[in-house]
Specification:
It is a single chain. With about 150 residues, the chain is α/β, with parallel strands linked by helices. It is about 30% helix and about 15% strand. The chain has five helices and six strands, in the order ααβαβββαβαβ. The strands form three sheets. The chain has a two-stranded parallel ribbon with strand order 1-4. A two-stranded antiparallel ribbon has the order 2-3. The radius of gyration is 20 Å and the shape is elongated. The termini are far apart.
């Protein structure tokens, strides 16, 4: 386990087989980018994507079969094996969210859906509205609301 950036960077000096576990979500930033830049060109490497990879992220690009990944301004060739494992996502799915919402003894005045891709948000909005009959809003980018009332 590494605690400092320097210790993490030293992992890239390892030439023998190794396992690197990182919590840098969706390959959008952080130390994982250094490790990916070093390991992606090596066909002996494997990258396990163990959660949801949002559109527009490095993780989604890898999931979708990108031949190159832009990391720190460089086009890094992807020769490593990319493996998707959906069972380990840290995000609750639709059924878990609906189960959680069913625990409310008093319905919220307003439910805001702010995380997810547009089609999933719209589908979930319909599910909440149909099941609970609560007002649901998917805010537009930079839209604001007065919650003091």
């Amino acid at each position: 386990m590494t605690r400092s950036v320097e210790d993490s960077k030293r992992i890239n000096d390892v030439v023998s087989p190794c396992i690197i576990i990182s919590a840098s979500g969706m390959a959008t930033g952080g130390r994982i980018l250094h490790h990916l830049a070093r390991r992606l060109p090596d066909a002996r490497s494997a990258v396990l994507l163990v959660g949801y990879e949002a559109e527009g992220t490095g993780g989604r690009a890898l999931e979708d079969g990108a031949q190159y990944l832009r990391i720190h301004g460089e086009e890094v060739p992807v020769r490593a094996e990319i493996v998707k494992i959906d069972q380990l996502s840290a995000h609750a799915g639709r059924s878990e969210l609906l189960r959680w919402l069913s625990g409310f003894s008093v319905p919220p005045r307003q439910t805001f859906l702010v995380h997810g891709e547009a089609n999933a948000l719209e589908s979930f909005e319909g599910a909440v509205t149909n099941r609970f009959h609560w007002p649901v809003t998917i805010p537009a980018y930079l839209q604001s609301f007065d919650l003091s009332a």
